[in-house]
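Weekly puzzle thread! Below is a chain. First person to post its structure in token form gets bragging rights.
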Amino acid sequence: MLPQRRPRKKGRVEIIPMIDVMLFLLVFFIMITLQMITDKGLKLDLPTSSETKVLPHPHFVLNIVKDGDVVVKGKKMSLDQLQAFLAGNGDTKHTQVTIAADEMVPFKDFVHVMDICQKAGVTSIGIAAKPA
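Winning reply:
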């Protein structure tokens, strides 16, 4: 008596895991794209520098306009409000801030904003400038 042959099974492509991977990639790319959206800034005449470098994308851009007001995410803030805003933003040791000051802003206003950042606990501070 001859041994019986089993019918050969055809390979199947499982579609459910492929859909899971595609949805994961979609969510991943959406999250990365949202991180790449920049803050809206103000029209400032930034000072020029011959030593400018590209900074990593900051959490906040602090705009100092000609009259000395500080604007963050489209809202004017006093220095006390700015300090409370930065301090209440979670882990300030990892918060990255870029200060963009109009070239006509008095240096004392710039120093006051840097002071407030340090009082709030922010240690990673960049200064915006135009390349020369």
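Puzzle host: Confirmed. Bonus trivia for everyone else. The CA atoms of residues 83 and 117 lie 7 Å apart.
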